[in-house]
Amino acid sequence: MARTHITHTDDTDEVIVSHRNTAEDYAMLSTEIANRKMRIFLGIEQILWFVVGIAELLLGIELGLKFIGADGHSTFARFMTGVTAPMVSPFVGLSHNPAVGGRVIDVATLVTMVAYLIGASILDRILALILVRPPRTP
């Protein structure tokens, strides 16, 4: 990509126009592309971790409700179960839910929380490898 350089001298009305493609131009273009990719990556990363954070919050509330033995007929408990059920369903039945002093520890919800964190971390790393590579030099 050729770049036009215009030089104007103060002593005369002479204008010098030259077309050249220098290593400096290439480095500047590479830096601009890398910066743009970095901004895209950071935006995607923010969205990814925001969504995972909301999911973890909902799953944590559901885990807490089950642990304290919340009444399954209450409106809020039913709402939380309805919201988190699609996220937890792939992990239901992996293990029985142990009870500690009459309090239930929902293993499926715990596994879901860990799986979402691991999955998001892997996805974040893959996106970083794809979008944030150092620019190649000529």
Please tell me about this protein's structure.
There is one protein chain. By secondary structure, this protein is mainly alpha-helical. It has one domain (22-131). Helices cover 61% and strands 12% of the residues. The chain has helices at residues 23-67, 75-88, 107-131; strands spanning 3-8, 15-20, 99-100, 103-104. The strands form two sheets. A two-stranded antiparallel ribbon has the order 1-2. Strands 3-4 form a two-stranded antiparallel ribbon. α1 packs antiparallel against α3. The two termini are 13 Å apart. The mean pLDDT is 83.
What are the key terms here?
two-stranded antiparallel sheet, 138 residues, mainly alpha, elongated, two-stranded antiparallel ribbon, 4 strands, 3 helices
Distance between the termini: 13 Å
Q: Work out the radius of gyration.
A: 28 Å
The coarse overall form would be elongated
Q: Which residues sit in consecutive blocks of at least 5 with pLDDT less than 50?
A: none
Biggest sheet architecture: 2 strands, antiparallel
By DSSP (H or I, 4+ residues per run), the number of helices equals 3
Give the number of domains: 1
